[in-house]
Amino acid sequence: MTAGFAFLAFRLSFASLTALAVEHGVAGNVVGMFACLVDGGAVVGTVGVVMARSTGRRTWPYWATVAGFAATSLGFNVAHSDGTAAGIAIAITPPAAQLVGTELLVRMLPSAGSSAETATDVAPAVAAARTATAAATVARDTVSAAVRRCPTW
Fold this sequence. Notes:
Number of strands: 0
Helix content: over 70%
Oligomer: single chain
Largest sheet: none
């Protein structure tokens, strides 16, 4: 569920970021790459937080990555909005949802060395990782399809 939630946030923000990039003259064959870099940074940071926590390493560098890319996405999404209260609320929802999803995912996972029960608690995390991998595959296929539709490469 968490991976699906994150995918929806990514997809909504992806639409806004690609539209903003087109409006500002970014070539059609790379707008998808721009959006994937911005929102993908938050996804990479999320994976880092989960992995660091599960191995007992510090999580703050990964949280900084999540927050930095979420803030970048938020800024670009707001810039693409129509400036009304409703438009801004719509624009901030995907990055905010990504941050909430990340926090909830991390809170659900056991921390390193939590107890002997940790081994059995890992099964839900493995299932979540598989779901996230499937969502990432869908995102990759979406970007690939968008790139194929571009007139020149």
